[in-house]
Design brief:
Layout lengths: L8 E6 L5 H4 L10 E2 L2 E2 H9 L5 E6 L13 E4 L7 H15 L4 E6 L8 H12 L9 E6 L2 E2 L3 E4 L4 H9 L5 H10 L5 E4 L19 H13 L6
Parallel strand pairs: 1-4, 1-6, 4-5, 7-10
Antiparallel strand pairs: 2-3, 6-9, 7-8, 7-9
Helix pairs in contact: 3-5
């Protein structure tokens, strides 16, 4: 029996949010909210598929995911409600155990304006910063005045450090970024914080948390001719 070579790139969608302010806590949560004719999950997966070999979705065991996102792999969130870092660790755990990827693009399911431009840009910067294994584990873009951890690219080598951080009981994204920045060499690179190499498509970072965000989203679709991605 021939062995299939490991995928070099994986997309990891964090879809644990219930979206109570948007979907009233429906079983599909934020992943099933529909815009421009497709679910949030389908929009985000469509942005990842052109640049990755597979898409992994982390969701709670009782989330009923929409079926319009293509052949995604579903990994259950081992600690529902523990925040995005815990969900990220669960997804990475599966990717590492399966030996499936050398680079991972992370995206939150509530970013339906994501297009392939941003994942492609992130992966290019991750590859360029490799430095023979001594480069950063995580490339995080700077947009809207803060690091956008939930639209980023990383290497699975991050996992032991992330698990150790979570084992302390901490869950804060910025606290973990600070720890990675303090390592020698630094293991996170925040791109675009000082201008220069800025991430493409700033609208891609719109995360939809409440009904007012849906209005902003609808305005973007109208500007684009309601054609979706």
């Amino acid at each position: 029996m021939s062995h299939q070579p490991p995928s070099r790139r994986a997309g990891l969608i964090l879809a644990g949010g219930r979206g109570r302010r948007l979907a009233g806590g429906a079983p599909q949560g934020k992943a099933g909210v529909t815009t421009a004719g497709r679910s949030f999950l389908a929009h985000v997966a469509a942005a990842l598929w052109p640049v990755v070999d597979e898409v992994v979705v982390v969701a709670t065991a009782d989330t009923v995911l929409p079926t319009d996102a293509g052949p995604v792999t579903v990994v259950h969130d081992g600690a529902p409600g523990a925040g995005p870092l815990a969900a990220l660790a669960d997804g990475l755990e599966w990717i590492v155990a399966a030996g499936r990827a050398e680079a991972v693009v992370v995206a939150a399911v509530d970013m339906p304006l994501l297009t392939a431009d941003l994942p492609r840009w992130l992966l290019a910067r991750l590859a360029a910063a490799d430095a023979g294994g001594q480069g950063p584990w995580w490339i995080v873009p700077w947009a809207d005045g803060h690091p956008q951890v939930l639209a980023s690219a990383l290497r699975p080598a991050l996992l032991p450090s992330l698990r150790a951080f979570l084992a302390t009981g901490r869950r804060d994204l910025r606290g973990y970024l600070g720890i990675l920045q303090g390592l020698v060499p630094p293991r996170v690179h925040v791109v675009g914080a000082a201008g220069g190499d800025v991430p493409p498509a700033p609208e891609a970072f719109l995360d939809v948390d409440e009904p007012a965000d849906l209005d902003r989203l609808a305005a973007v679709w109208r500007r684009r001719g309601a054609a979706g991605i």
